[in-house]
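anyone else get weird line breaks when pasting these?? whatever heres mine. first is seq + tokens for prot A
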Amino acid sequence: MGHSRPLIGPRGRDRGIGTEAARLIAGYGFEQLGLHRIGLHVHGHNHRALRVYEKVGFVVEGVRREARSRDGEWVDEVVMGILGREWAALSSTAR
């Protein structure tokens, strides 16, 4: 049997898995649970996560400057959100 490639860590990056997971979660929230809005916070230096959420349709709503301490340094926290109507518009154009 061949070697499987791990999906977590550096070898799992740049394969679109995070983007697909975020789309599935947002879709479930809006389409199955009937949510009006989904929001999240992400560290400002986490450019991969920011890019994934923007691809899915999340919009930056603000930045909480130096809101968290991480490894002894203060980091910004980016607040993002997406509304059900925005998700529906994105979903209808993707079909």
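and prot B, same format (seq, then tokens)
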Amino acid sequence: MKATLLEHGVPETAIAIATGNQRELDGVDLFDPACPIEHVITVEALR
């Protein structure tokens, strides 16, 4: 999924992964206008 986003020109800084051991959203305020994250890859976090 991340590779597909990168292939479509999405910058890596705009992607966060929140699955199992990868917790890239910990401590991130997604509501902060300065937050660069635009895409979140997750499975379990939305359950």
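btw re prot B: The chain has a mean pLDDT of 88. The radius of gyration is 11 Å.
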